[in-house]
Write a structure and sequence with these properties.
This protein has two helices and nine strands. The protein is mainly beta. It has one domain: Elongation Factor Tu (Ef-tu), domain 3 (Beta Barrel), CATH 2.40.30.200. The strands form two sheets. It has a seven-stranded antiparallel sheet with strand order 2-1-7-8-9-6-3. The radius of gyration is 19 Å and the shape is extended. The two termini are 12 Å apart.
Length: 156
Amino acid sequence: MSFEQFRSVASQLLDAPTRQNSTNDVMLKLGSITFSVSTAAYQQLTRKYGYKWAKNARFGQHDALQFTGIENTAITLSGVVYCELNEIGDQQFAQMDAIAKKGDPLMLTSGLGDVMGYWCITSIEEQQVAHLRQGVAKKQAFTMELIFYGKTLSHP
């Protein structure tokens, strides 16, 4: 791990809440993206585990199967952002999109400070449900899909 990578991880860990200090409203932190009650709150977290099986065709019989490994775990976060609430605004998804477009794996940390490794954003879907004057969204639903990169940046 390079010094810059170490510094980045250390600063993320210092910013993450601890079990002793979990009174804030942070639910999850993905790099600089914070999912919390007062910002982008997810209502559902779905985790998907996958397993690889290779098929070998056999004449006149069922295919022979061979276990070849484990797929990367995937997480889907679904939630709502109310743009008119304090300090949120309607630019949150633009910021998430800009972070995702960099193409960097991001450290995922739970609201209790548990480090969950590095994850990559594979998609963000935004749905504007209600609108105020001038077409500004009052409520935005979102779905973000993540895939596990690895426990460290150097050894995925």
